[in-house]
Specification:
Radius of gyration: 19 Å
Number of helices: 4
Shape: elongated
Low-confidence stretches: none
Strand content: under 5%
Oligomer: single chain
Number of strands: 0
Number of domains: 1
Distance between the termini: 52 Å
Largest sheet: none
Mean pLDDT: 85
Length: 130
């Protein structure tokens, strides 16, 4: 059977809902797994609450997080989970462009494309948009 897939608003909403749900679940499991590994390695360390240290510079960019993931370091796993959480709404906007294109709604394709461009610029450039 060669049936044409119908792109109804309800079907698109279900797909977007599942996409967001899956993104949050995968990100949560990733962060939790990294947290478990971290606690196994550092659970008995004494914390120093007087001293604040930001994340190591090797975990502040997408490329470095992916590089550190090769060794499965706990902090890199947690950072990957945070990155996946950030990318979840980006994936939603990207899918929306596809869905609006299927519905032949060119105005919303344009608007969603502009939103996606801003999101990607913000994510990859390191420059704050004011």
């Amino acid at each position: 059977m060669n049936q044409k897939t119908e792109w109804t608003d309800q079907r698109i909403e279900v797909i977007i809902g599942n996409l967001l749900r899956l993104g949050v679940i995968v990100a949560s499991v990733t962060v939790f797994t990294g947290g478990v590994f971290f606690m196994i390695g550092h659970g008995l360390d004494t914390p120093h609450f007087q001293l604040f240290r930001g994340e190591a510079s090797k975990l502040r960019s997408i490329e470095s997080v992916l590089t550190e993931m090769r060794t499965l370091r706990s902090r890199a796993v947690m950072q990957l989970g945070i990155l996946l959480l950030i990318l979840t709404p980006v994936a939603r906007v990207a899918f929306s462009i596809f869905a609006f294109h299927k519905e032949k709604d060119n105005l919303y394709v344009l608007i969603s494309s502009i939103v996606l461009a801003f999101l990607l610029f913000s994510l990859f450039s390191g420059v704050a948009i004011k």
